[in-house]
Amino acid sequence: MVAPVTNRGDATGLVELFLPDRPDDDGMRQIAATAHALAYIVIANRSFTDVYQWGCRTRPLNLAAEVQHRLLPASPVCEAAQFMVAGALEPATHVGGDTFDYVVDRDTMQLSVTDAMGHDVEAALLATLAVGALRRVRRAGAELEEQAVEANQAIVDNGRRGFVTGQLLRVSLLDGTTEFVSREPADDDGHDHLRRRSMERKIRRRGGIRR
């Protein structure tokens, strides 16, 4: 039989068992609990070894994809009572510029989806700068609009050519209130007034969207 190795929606793999007889209900529960425990072992140790990556990859990644995959959250999936978030990069072996990130805090879930111009190593480096800037200011407790402004300024100040578009989302786990920011830079010359004009903030409530 085959049992899923999962933790909070993160499907880390499958465990295959060869048993002499069909297990009863108690045996099935023990197998499920063992597979769940194995997920914790994999998650706890995959940061320290390449063995897990060897098992996941059927083809080598190009350089841009290798950089991009290092920008992803520790788990591509998170399942909770109030939400489920999941993401993936496609095609997995040849990506550049596209990435996503999320974090679950005490009362909120924050999500970002960004797209750096291009599909090469330069795009991956630009995405690295954008994601790093977003994480830095997010971890300082900034609001979504400030996160977008600071990430934009980091790209301008550090001399990377090109631009990054992105969407930032914050969902309250208490009442479902949602904040959304869309950031679309005009060009790579730092025309901040165009960037600010393209920003939107929408609050979604039970009654609809309030601008």
TrEMBL record:
Region (Disordered): 184-211
Entry keywords, A to Z: Hydrolase
Domain of life: Bacteria
Pfam families assigned: SpoIIE (PF07228)
Domain PPM-type phosphatase: 106-182
Keyword Hydrolase: yes
Keyword Hydrolase: yes
Family matches, as InterPro entries: Bact_Sigma-Reg, PPM-type-like_dom_sf, PPM-type_phosphatase-like_dom
Compositionally skewed regions (Basic residues) per UniProt: 193-211
The name this protein goes by in its record: PPM-type phosphatase domain-containing protein
Species the sequence originates in: Streptomyces spororaveus
